[in-house]
Amino acid sequence: MPASTVILGSDHAGFAFKNAVNHSLREAGFTVMEFGARSQESCDYPLVAGDVCRQVLATGAPGILICGTGLGMSMAANRFPGIRAALCTNEYLARMTRAHNDANVLCLGSRVLGEALAESIISVFLNTAFDGERHQRRIDQLETLNANS
Ligand code: RB5
I want to staple 11 with a disulfide (CB 3.0 to 4.6 A). Which of 1, 45, 86, 95 is the partner? Predict the structure, then answer.
């Protein structure tokens, strides 16, 4: 996913983490579109996930969503058709979810990861290409999956 823009959002629990990630992405030359918490005042992760996912769908740029665990953000993001959000806690998951799942949103838990590990996960996520081939068939199946099929 060779991207030049990243769509970044967090709730209050991920606010400090988001600032650190924003800083390192900009240092690395990325343009960052930021959404969500502007302070540690409580806010609601589903609304932030919605803002970020709409931008990911509109621009094709990858998204990064941060909350306390990453769980709520991943649940919210995966409600959007076309979004494939993956909660990653190590670099292997980040590599595989790009290569096999063509994930377009990375979810991180600020209360789970240290910043150095998070930055390493982000780097792998942004620099790993989708493998395509048989995996594309499965991605297509994801988009047609519903309770009646
Ligand atoms: C906020 O306390 C916390 O619930 C939220 O950041 C997230 O971890 C939810 O999944």
Answer: 45
Entry pTM: 0.97
Overall domain count for the chain: 1
Mutate to test the pocket of ligand 1, among 45, 48, 66 (most ligand atoms within 8 A of CB): 45
Please give the residue range of the domain that contains residue 142. 5-147
Give the ligand 1 atom nearest the CA of 14. 6
Name the catalytic one among 43, 53, 88, 100: 100
Q: Using DSSP, how many helices (H) and how many strands (E) does the chain show?
A: 6, 5
Query: Which residue's entry shows tokens 């377009």?
Result: 104
Q: In angstroms, what is the span from residue 148 Cα to ligand 1's centroid?
A: 31
Pairing of strands 5-10, 105-109: unpaired
Q: Tell me: the pLDDT tens digits for 43-62?
A: 999 999 999 999 999 999 99
Amino acid letter, 134? R
Ligand 1 centre to CA of 93 (Å) is: 21
